[in-house]
Amino acid sequence: MVQLEEAQEVLKNTVHFIEETEKVVLSNAIGRVLAADAVAKVDQPPFPRSPLDGYAVRGSDTKGLTKEYPGTFRVIGKIYAGEVFEGIIERGEAVRIMTGAPIPDGADTVIRQEWTDYGEDEVRIYAESKPYQNYCCQGEDYKKGDILLKKGTVLDGISIAILASLGMKEAEVYRLPNIAVISTGDEVVQPGEPLKSGKIYDSNLHLLYGRLAEIGIRPYASVHSKDSAPHMAETIKSFVDQADLIITTGGVSVGEKDIMHEVAELLGAEKLFWRVDLKPGAPTLSMVFENTLIICLSGNPFGAAANFELLVRGVIGKLSGNPRWNMDKKKAVMQTGFPKKGGVRRFLRAYHEDGNVWLPAGKHVSGVFSSMIGCNCLVEVPEDKDGVMKGDSVWIHLL
Amino acid sequence: MVQLEEAQEVLKNTVHFIEETEKVVLSNAIGRVLAADAVAKVDQPPFPRSPLDGYAVRGSDTKGLTKEYPGTFRVIGKIYAGEVFEGIIERGEAVRIMTGAPIPDGADTVIRQEWTDYGEDEVRIYAESKPYQNYCCQGEDYKKGDILLKKGTVLDGISIAILASLGMKEAEVYRLPNIAVISTGDEVVQPGEPLKSGKIYDSNLHLLYGRLAEIGIRPYASVHSKDSAPHMAETIKSFVDQADLIITTGGVSVGEKDIMHEVAELLGAEKLFWRVDLKPGAPTLSMVFENTLIICLSGNPFGAAANFELLVRGVIGKLSGNPRWNMDKKKAVMQTGFPKKGGVRRFLRAYHEDGNVWLPAGKHVSGVFSSMIGCNCLVEVPEDKDGVMKGDSVWIHLL
User: Is residue B369 within 8 angstroms of chain A, CB to CB?
Assistant: First the structure.
């Protein structure tokens, strides 16, 4: 029997961050972890840019101009965004310029077109403008050499846009962990099959697959194994070459059908720990076989669900370098109570918002899936407390 | 010029919730919206179930039993999970039973095996057990006919597991909206292409694609159009048959290259509004062409990003029936200040946590992408305020 924190440490210390990288096109890079700093190769904007449609001039030429006392400028060119004016603007000259176009050399401001007579060969300007007014400086957003996204950034829409603005059509990201999921239990059948007497549908496999998919990792294998230790050992052997992590459910307790202990022996795997001091999901077992970590969760659905969060997520965080997969905890105040005899460290599914936490109205029976709907945290009830009461300050672990 | 709330209403009223449904396998159903109530066809568990390994007996037979005064029972069978014992347990009889197996008729409790001598033909029982102790009732989790997930539920790992427990291998979900994204601007080139003088890389297209992918919808088309009204009109025509929504960026202001007004005329589209009373992104334009809503965002990257959140997300929420895509707002307290002359309703990108909100350290220049990294909300600065100050209570719009 180990404490939860010890179990978390042991599991995390058993796996290594996956340093292999791959290139993915930007449209597939959402949620992936950047494997190299994204460095600006040019200033952004790469040139002084006009923020509006108007006339680029020397600001000093416009001093004192008003509607009553306009100035007349010779229009020596016209540029749209994407074009370049090759000459230099001298005193008394203007270039017609559109939003986004590079401000020509010599000019230091752009006169908004509404302050002019929109002249084509000559333009009358009705207002004065100071140098660098209506002028987006080169490198205003970022400068060549700036690190815009650090290695390790989890890519979202904004960071994808930043990579695009750097001219990158692909992102170099860390490979995702390869995870295999195996459920056990002769009593379970797969959804879609007929349900014979004494059987139930396999929900654990779909819980783990679904939860992994939800956080962005599709298991490369997800199968059910019958309750036969040799069969389960063969199944694990067939996955171990490719897997960074294998997660199983069921067969970890002390009964005759609790095959995972025998599986460990058949494989010659190194057991890390068996039994964690918490409820639900206490009988969690872990082992290492051919350098691959195998975490064997309880077959009890809520035990499997809770221990996936408490024990497995941190491992995936370490493997992937994605901090979102580590579990955060914080303090919150109970808005409902749950009296229950103490003596064991207990985790209750709950909903939190703005520092308050509510237990679902349903029953807190292990194995009751339906009460987990809409929950976004686990409330920790310490071993020495008889449940929790309204108003108690508790630790919540965020899902 | 319309107010933000009016623009939001107009846009939402223009589109219809997409009632078409499709069946997807559970492993692809994460994030999708359930299109039919998920109703239990059988009780769960479908039979009274043993929660542990032991012996099923009549509780009344065990009254007063202790280690010193054990009772001896005749073992009339043995069942594992997934098996069924066909007989009835009479007085003085026991059935060896494993975790998850159905408790046979006649028995009303299971004696934990540690409280017995593990006998095979006869078993000695060392403790008393009350009826329905160590007994999972049929229908304890849910009963036949219970609605477990309501139509409209957004599927996550837990709800996928519930569908699996109901025996469903597929979920009936609403079709996702078909969205096309088009960026404009002769000055932009696509990432991966060489950057000529005066040009910049297209980030808006990737911002919109990335943000849509982040919330779970991959645009079925995402292209760049040159600044030619006829060309853009043709591009829109080519997408309009399939699209539930078309989003464009750029060309919406008042300059010569602001082609979207001409595009609307060429298409004969019905303009809904042009210009929204907010900053950034004021020149947003919207129109309807062949029953398809077209929202034309500013070409300014932060304008496009902010108005995607403020104007487009609600439309996607309505189309898809997915409440996660509506934008929530709540009150928070500024932990940093941003003095800025008022006169316009302004939205600033910021980071909030537990009711507090911080502006990023970078500059608040429209078009500065890099300062948007890590932001998770927009702070609203009312028109009549000169910016916000530390300690101000403000509305934040959650990203």
Answer: yes
| 3-state helix vs strand vs coil in chain B, percent to 5 | 20, 30, 50
Q: Say yes or no: A45 contacts chain B, CB-CB below 8 A.
A: yes
Residue B166: closest CA among B179, B181, B155: B155
Mean of the pLDDT values across residues A75-94? 95
Q: Are A372 and A340 in contact (CB under 8 A)?
A: no
Does residue B319 contact residue B18 with C-beta atoms inside 8 Å? yes
Integer angstrom CA distances of residue B123 from B46, B76, B89, B92, B225 = 28, 10, 14, 10, 82
Q: What is the distance between the alpha carbons of residues B73 and B339, in angstroms, rounded to a whole number?
A: 84
Which parts of chain B fold into alpha helices (H)? 4-14, 157-165, 204-215, 229-240, 260-267, 301-307, 313-320
pLDDT tens digits, one per residue of B217-275: 999 999 999 999 999 999 999 999 999 999 999 999 887 789 999 999 999 999 999 99
Q: Work out the widest C-alpha separation in chain A, in whole angstroms.
A: 100
> Is the separation of the CB atoms in A167 and A144 below 8 Å?
no
Enumerate the β-bridge partners of residue A124: A72
pTM of the model: 0.90
Inspect the interface and report whether the beta carbons of A98 and B168 lie closer than 8 Å: no
Half-sphere exposure of A160 (CA within 13 A, CB side): 24
Other Cβ atoms closer than 10 A to B12: 16
Q: Phi/psi of residue A325, each to 5°?
A: -90, -5
Whole-angstrom distance, CA of residue A176 vs CA of residue A14: 17
**Smallest CA–CA distance from A101 into chain B, residue:** B198
DSSP one-letter code for B77? E
pLDDT averaged over chain B? 93
Tell me the nearest-neighbour CA distance from A311 into chain B, angstroms.
17
DSSP string, A47-109: S-B-SSSEEEE-GGGGTT--SSS-EEEEEEEEE-TT----SB--TTEEEEE-TTSBPPBT--E
Q: Is A147 on the interface with B (CB under 8 A)?
A: no
* Exposure on the CB side of residue B258, measured as CA atoms within 13 A: 18
Burial of B361 (0-12, 13-18, 19+ CB in 10 A): exposed
Residue B220 contacts A where some CB pair is shorter than 8 Å: no
Alpha-carbon gap, residue B177 to A123, rounded angstroms: 49
**pLDDT for residue B8:** 97
* B238 CA to centre of own chain: 30
Q: Are B212 and A156 in contact (CB under 8 A)?
A: no
Non-local CB neighbours of A102 within 8 Å, separated by 6+ positions: A47, A48, A49, A50, A79, A84, A85, B197, B198
Q: Rounded CA gap, B217 and A148, in Å?
A: 26
Q: Which residues contact B118 (CB under 8 A, 6 or more apart)?
A: none
Question: If you measure CA to CA, which chain B residue comes closest to A78?
Answer: B256
State which amino acid sits at residue B180.
Answer: A
Alpha-carbon distance of A350 to A345, in angstroms, equals 16
Q: Tell me, what amino acid is at A56?
A: A
